[in-house]
Amino acid sequence: MGKRIDKNTFKTVSIKCHRDPVAVGYVCIPEGVDRDLFVAKCLRTCRISVYTDNGDYMDRVPVSNEIISSIEFPASATELGSAVLFVVLPNKNKPVVLCSLLSHEESNVLREGEFYIEKKTENGVARIGGSTEDGIVNIISNFKDVSKVNVVSFSDDAEINFSTNGTFNVVADKTIALSSYSGVDIVIKNVATGNSSTISYVSGSGFTYSDEFGNKIEANAAGTVVTSDKISIGSSTSAEAIVLGTSFNAEILKTQALLTALKNAITAAVPVPGDGGLAIKTTIVSAISALPVGSFSNILSTKSFTE
What we know:
By secondary structure, the chain is α+β, with helices and mostly antiparallel strands. Helices cover 16% and strands 33% of the residues. It folds into 4 domains: 2-101, CATH 2.40.50; 112-163, no CATH class; 183-227, no CATH class; 241-307, no CATH class.
């Protein structure tokens, strides 16, 4: 005993029939059921309802897990979904779905070498596809509302690796957010010289930058240390070197000592009438002649910022 859907009332009625051993049917939804609940049950049990061109209606038709994911369910009981090819098991007269069929011009494959796995709804499309001719593989999530692509790997030693001998591009119309609970390491290798430049931040330890030219920046709880042969501030045409603190201080102390001795000599000098100021000059020269004169020619960062 089979069933069919009356084309006028869209209700299922019993009929006596002998099904063709191989035939094409269409996924359908019975009248009077909640569509979302029915579809959820079909997906969970891998069983669907099928309607054929001759009006035969078949309920709970087995379908494989691979095929169920490619099936499109109709929007209502008055519409038809994906076409499926089924066979009828001998003796039992029970159908089993072999595959789903695409309708006219529904295929995304336009030329040899292309492949697609796709799922469409009214809200958008999720697709994995590509072309061996063009050397392209695409993963696309394009929906009206939320659209996400997730790559997830969880274990004690989990890794997600991206490798290329060309350019790696990351482009976003909005924010690019990188988060880590441990640290971040960026290594740039100079293939020609074998030298490397690194940018690293380790949680609890701090930030480190070092490059192939010997420059280094360390920032941690103790403070910030910059190591470089030369540090300039400004543009390439107006850059000015930073003053070396230790060297500058040493020359200032020399100048201060010289000025102090000069001041004291002038204060203590006793004029001698009629000598034309010779006594004062002699006192001043005697006080400062042994003192070094401060020089500011080597206080810029031409040698070492940490000098």
